[in-house]
Amino acid sequence: MKLLTKALMKQIPPLYATDKVPIEKKKYWAKFFTPDSNWTWYVAEANAILSDDTEVPLSDPRANEAVDVRFFGLVQGMEEEAGYFMLRELESIRGALGLPIERDRYFRPGPKERHGTSGGGKKRHGKPNPVRQAAELADLMRR
Question: Is the predicted pLDDT of residue 108 greater than 90, yes or no?
Fold first, then answer.
């Protein structure tokens, strides 16, 4: 299953577009989850990363040539936290039974109250921390 469709790319706002909106009031556009684990990623914003490391909104025509996508949203796993995650990382993760991450095809965009999230998300971290992300992903892949 394709995690990011052309239709979703047209809808998801660029990174930082909703900075003034509290995390509990943000609109989430997509939900990714591990079918054989308890990890879920909710997408609030995203930018395409081009081969020269520049970032453009997903609605930009150049986004079709992206080498990756950086998302900002809410991650629920061992705890709930707001932060960044990458499309290529999501595509590489496998759960405990070796199943890939899926997009919830029945997910309807809306605020997190609608989706039953607990509201314990932390504030946005500055730039993504690749070392921290790699450690967390390695831990998830070991399960």
Answer: yes
